[in-house]
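User: For a benchmark we're assembling, each entry needs the component sequences followed by a predicted structure for the full assembly. Here are entry 17's components. Please fill in the structure.
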Amino acid sequence: MNESRPRVAILGGTGKEGPGLALRWAYAGYSIIIGSRQLEKAQTVAQELNRQLGVNSIQGMENSAAARLADICVLTVVQAAHQQALEGLKQDLQGKVMVDATARVDFSDPRPPSPPAAARYAQNLLGPGVRVVAAFQNVPAHALKKNLGGAIDTDVLVCSDDLPAAEEIIHLAKAAGMRAYFAGGLDNAVVVEGLTSILISLNKHYGTRTASIEITGVQTPLSQAK
Amino acid sequence: MNESRPRVAILGGTGKEGPGLALRWAYAGYSIIIGSRQLEKAQTVAQELNRQLGVNSIQGMENSAAARLADICVLTVVQAAHQQALEGLKQDLQGKVMVDATARVDFSDPRPPSPPAAARYAQNLLGPGVRVVAAFQNVPAHALKKNLGGAIDTDVLVCSDDLPAAEEIIHLAKAAGMRAYFAGGLDNAVVVEGLTSILISLNKHYGTRTASIEITGVQTPLSQAK
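Assistant: Structure for entry 17:
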């Protein structure tokens, strides 16, 4: 374990996306906290992930305790729980980098969402004391859990009004085997949310489940180098 | 010239995007009509393009005459002229495939647009007698004009509620050297418009002008084969 690495909490981390992210970051040597509204559920998932990896670096806590203890909080709650989670964690998140992975797209009836982006809404609700970054909205959950040290064929578009915070998350994405790019301010995140709707349509039309977006024509040591 | 090929009009075709598309399609053997509000301007641009290619297959006409004569009309007017162009051409476009290339993003202050997509707005305004397809919103104009027979490193996301019409445009995109995918219904086109905002942000941050989107994880003879 590298002590200079930030401690990462995954809030609402017992759902579809959280465990896969936790596995990849723990595999890369990060200290991870799985947060949940229910302490027991968080601890059960954390123990199961530790067992899978043969490590002891994943803890389970209630969301608010997890947020307070972490440097970076990744919010992976479902769309319907987004507002309530933010309101409940507003104080705990002050001073933190808060990564919003919410895509307001319904899988059974996918339509692009309207501005403001979920992450812009979060920034407005949380206030300027929280460094909000939008990322990981389109990462396929099934791809996270296999070949943990390997690359995932997806590009993460990282949006924030706080460039240093965005760069921390670009590094975090790379640590999990994903290419990542700075894709502008928080308002741009509504497009990244909407890409979910495009990817669902592509998968449906072409009979795949692996449609993904890749950025080309941009040369950057920051995002290409491992 | 292959007489079975549809005749393509590029409405508002004297701007940034139109001439490059015209060159590529004419190079591929299509009959092209450059449309403009001003007949003389259309004819001047058409003559110049014929001269560049050493062909005689590009005509210049007023937009309404161009629309009436064509099978497929590609609307490449600037955002501010979109509504007026549609209203003026509503009768002329009946029965045609109308490709809307509008991205409602201001280059000097790029922000993702709200739903409805420009192409959905067009479909509503033109009525069910026009087969509206959204495509070519993000194609870099400078890339179109060079190496005419070669591939362009960009993926075209084609959205329509009319799948056969979308497939015609996927073929047309391929004829111009672009990969193209069916990316869902017209509502999804708002995301493709918004990608313009992402690409501008990427180019600004990384000091490039060639940022582009590529689809991965989808295997399709329709879009990959030349």
